[in-house]
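[Meeting: bench + compute handoff]

Bench side (C.D.) handed over the final construct sequence. Compute side (W.E.) agreed to return the predicted structure before the next meeting so the bench team could plan truncations. Sequence as handed over:
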Amino acid sequence: MGRVVAIDAVIVASRVILWMGWVPQAAEALADPVPCCPIADAVKRIGKPSRVALKIVHLALTLAAAMGLQAPAHAQSLRSAHDDEEWRHDRQPPYQGDGWVESQGGSPPVVFPSSGIDLRSWIPVVDFDAAATAASDIWGYVSPSGREYALIGLSLGTGFVEVTDPSNAQVIDVLPGPTSSWRDIKTHGEYAYVVSEGGAGIQVFDLTQLDSGGVTLVTTVTTGGRVQTHDVAINSESARLYRAGGGGSNPVQGLRIYSLANPSLPAFVGEWNDRYCHDAQVVTWSEAPYDGVEVAFCYANDTTTSGNPGIEILDVSDPQNISVIGSINLALPPIFSHAAYYSHQGWLSPDRQLIYLNDEVDESANGNPTTTRIIDVSDLANPTQTATFSNGNNARDHNLFTLGNRIFEANYRSGLRVFDASDPLNPFESAYFDTYPDNDDAHYNGLWGTYPYLPSGTIIGSDIERGLFVWTLTAQSVPSSSTTGLRVAVLLFVAVGALQIRRRVPWIRESGALQRESASTRSIG
């Protein structure tokens, strides 16, 4: 009986693996006896039946591989996030051709592969300023009148673009800032806050006259130590700003916290420096036992480049007395297909039960396909990694956001990828727009960031070499027919294979008969 149960478990697991799109993870798990993999453990411990079980899994994986789903290569070496040599090696000059706006008719001068997403406007980097060499992060803003804007980081400052009519995006202004490849922007009220690895602290921009075509630099805040910052987060509910990380030979480790009680002059109120925090999301919790607690999710590593990638969940309600609620090390079991290499960025699901996390290094480190991790944070004190998902692409995943049942990922060379998360533990790709048509290799080029929260539904994105993209999502959230067909075919193949093996192996038939006889006896009794 135990042998049959074990075989049944593997058969079911095989079906689940294939249905969920976990072929690469399963292949690596079967090849590498990692204690955290329950399927591999089960298969390797049940003795003689395991050979039959392995055949079932092997047949399924072979079919999947024949259809183009390849397992990843094993890790050869650990690479650093934004390794200076690799980052410099990947630098390319900005696109020098024409952009395009739909309102002027014709077709874009570049053919961008896409599905379910329509391009409405495209403004190249050099159209903001001829001296600009690259774009970085992006954010959105809605003025009190309802007009919509894109705020985009550039190598030499910040660009402000009206996208109220997505088919006719118009540059309003470009304001200078320290030269930097990394620039991040967030808004609160009628102000924008800009930080960079180039220094200058926090630039505070007044947006009250943006509808009239004007943006004003109000002040530059340099309190809180070093002036470099990697990222910035804002909790508008508590009116606080959080500077995350920072560069230089003596990098800032964690979070520096500012009150926005006076939004034109952020006031430094506290810091947390136990670990390097690369990025963060900060919210006010509304569920017991943390109702009313201000919670910071820090995407943390030991240093700016590597070490124990994970999430530190902090109670930052009192900036002078910050405490750790819970934490997770994503290099430790359960690791699914492979251990994490770098905790880069993540975002809560709309119900705040899960976090979807990007690791921008694992694709280049060991040849894995684009992999997004899913962490259960329903219990803040005990976060648990529950799954991963992939579209099978090779590009690095970079920044993502959630909206409704969708996940919007800016994935460098593969561009914007939209995933349907109706089943939150098994998202599938439902639309894409590739801003880097040449290839989808794991390099630091292409789409840096995206912003899906404009009320009109317009989506904006920032591409390092190609500048600002403005899109409309047209895809319906259903799997493509080809994907559905593949899954059905694989399931049928596995089911038929399982039945054939049961019929041909005597001890399986006998054990099955004993199971039925035992069940019959119990029902009679």
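W.E. noted at the follow-up: Residues 1-81, 478-499, 505-525 have pLDDT under 50 and may be disordered. C.D. will use this when planning the next construct.
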